Amino acid sequence: MDRFPFSRYDALASEEDLSYLMDLLSSVRDREGHPVVMTLNTIVANPDFDRIRAADFREYHYEPFTETLQRYPCHRNAFALWREGMDAGIFRPQFHGREHINVPRWLKSLQEDKGRARLAFSYRMADLSEGEHLSEDAYVDALNYEDPCETEFQKQLLREGTQLFEQLLGYRSRSFVAPNHIWSSELEKTLHQSGIELYQGLWYQFEPRGGKSGRFRRRLHFMGQRNRLGQLFLIRNAAFEPALYPGRDCVGSALHRIDTAFRMGKPAIMGTHRLNFCGYIDRSNRERNLPAFRLLLRTIRQKWPDVEFMGTDQLIDLVKTM
Known about the structure:
39% of the residues lie in helices and 11% in strands. It is α/β, with parallel strands linked by helices and 322 residues long. It has a single domain (5-319), classed as Alpha-Beta Barrel (TIM Barrel). A three-stranded parallel sheet has the order 5-6-9, with helices on one face. A two-stranded parallel sheet has the order 1-4. The protein has a two-stranded antiparallel ribbon with strand order 2-3. Helix 2 runs parallel beside helix 5 and helix 10 (250-263) runs parallel beside helix 11. The chain is globular. The N and C termini lie far apart (45 Å).
């Protein structure tokens, strides 16, 4: 498992992880004095392993991620730090999904005791990927399906997920990024009814074709595009992923892409993952990546002194005028 970065480094961000990240974000400010803003794309629930086991794997149950935090040894005050970061203007949570698991397929594998699903479950995990990439049965593609009728279940979980987001965070999310960029366009009406105005993501969407082949229809999107409901698409055009690509110049690559975006008159939207800043499992991961992130942010500020920092939900209103 130590060859796959998400298995090796990723975990719920601890109090220490959050504190170091908050200090860094607060230390770099734009010309208006605003700190760097990080959009926390949030999965609001995790499987309730105890209740699933008690139901002999015949029923799926979930718990708010805030309850999961309470069982981790260095995380009891983590959500309070989320709140502190929100008040300081450096964290702006948005909706990523109810859970990052394909519930029907995972539950079916648990019932059939298929592959290593039960073994992973015994460690309160859904996947035990050993190579450098996700295994084929990693179950992280939450909105994929084999049978199109599963979209009705997906609509319900999205309704529940957006409601839980509002319950936990105190406001409705204005944007959504689908796990693994996989979702059916049929779900967009449900998301629209739940307050979603904008889709974050890449320049393509993987739309399930159904069946067990794992094939998708690739739908292309562009910055500022609208669907038939008037929802916008926001395209990430830069990335900072040193934990995933340790041999690359992630700072230089990000700066190059930001420069390209600005030259084209576009906002620079940089994607990154939590595992880049986590030290709960392996402290050296955080100690290695935070200085690189600090260098990136300071260089941005020096190279583009007129830069403005804002979160995805703040950018929505700007993109609407583009």
